[in-house]
Write a structure and sequence with these properties.
14% strand, alpha+beta, 10 strands
């Protein structure tokens, strides 16, 4: 039996919907019937109007845990030519934070809660329990793979799988539009809500703020969106516990204004982040 096929059957038995990838980490091409997703990308389904093609030609939508499909003759050629095995994280109730390089890994260690970690070719996959919309390039070197996406299988990894944190969900949130105001009523940083901070140390907070400042400072495009996401990431971790001070917030605002953001834009982004998180 093909080694990739053996791996796929083992993963499927553990509840991971799998699919083969060809060279270049790409899914196998659509069959003529399903070209350009004409069938809606729903293979192996019996519902009226759904595609019944048994071949693995729909990328993440083809992923399955059914051993009869995985080992079927229709999939045999794909496994013979497969370069590796992939899986659909969202189909298994997971989210993968794909960190492409050392800088992204450093950011994750300073910002995200520890979880199961898998070494990849160039970086790491951080895996959490929970699903969310997938998004690419949410920050330099970071992609989110969950629903409607596939991730390459490397190994089981090390560590316990943690629940999906708000700080990861926040990375995929686009800044909501704010109504235009005739007068700017907020002229400075807003103090975070009060409360104890039992889950993080001052060093952790300092590194998180420093990484957010660095992220803003290094932005080469989409500065306003980068500022908002940086504010959102900091608030999602520390906005509820009261450990953010005016000094911390002032550093974030100063970094944003150094990139050309006005005080009003900074306040709008901060207010939008608070509103998004329900603070």
């Amino acid at each position: 039996m093909n080694g990739h096929l053996r791996t796929a059957l083992r993963l499927a038995a553990d509840g991971l919907p799998v699919l083969p990838l060809r060279r270049g980490k790409l899914p196998f091409g659509n069959c003529p019937t399903c070209a350009r997703n004409a069938c809606g990308g729903r293979p192996n389904m019996k519902a009226a109007g759904a595609c019944g093609c048994p071949a693995p030609c729909h990328a993440w939508a083809a992923a399955t845990t059914d051993p009869a499909v995985i080992a079927s003759p229709a999939w045999a050629m794909a496994w013979r030519h497969a370069a590796t095995v992939a899986y659909h994280p969202g189909g298994a109730g997971l989210t993968v934070v794909d960190l492409d390089d050392a800088a992204a890994i450093e950011w994750a260690r300073a910002t995200l809660p520890a979880t199961r970690t898998v070494a990849t070719t160039r970086g790491e996959h951080w895996i959490y329990w929970g699903t969310m919309p997938s998004a690419n390039a949410v920050r330099p070197g970071v992609d989110l793979k969950s629903s409607a996406a596939y991730a390459r299988w490397f190994a089981k990894g090390a560590g316990a799988t943690a629940p999906l944190p708000d700080s990861v969900r926040a990375l995929a949130v686009k800044e909501p539009a704010m109504p235009r105001r005739t007068q700017q009523s907020l002229t400075g940083p807003l103090r975070a809500h009060g409360g104890a901070c039992p889950h993080r140390t001052p060093v952790y907070l300092e590194r998180g703020v420093s990484m957010a400042v660095q992220r803003i400072t290094e932005a080469k495009s989409a500065v306003h969106a980068t500022v908002y996401r940086a504010f959102l990431a900091v608030l999602s971790t520390h906005g509820r516990c009261g450990c953010l001070t005016d000094t911390h917030i002032g550093r974030l605002f100063a970094a944003a204004q150094a990139k050309g953001e006005s005080p009003r834009h900074c306040t709008d982004a901060w207010t939008n982040a608070l509103t998004t998180l329900g603070l």
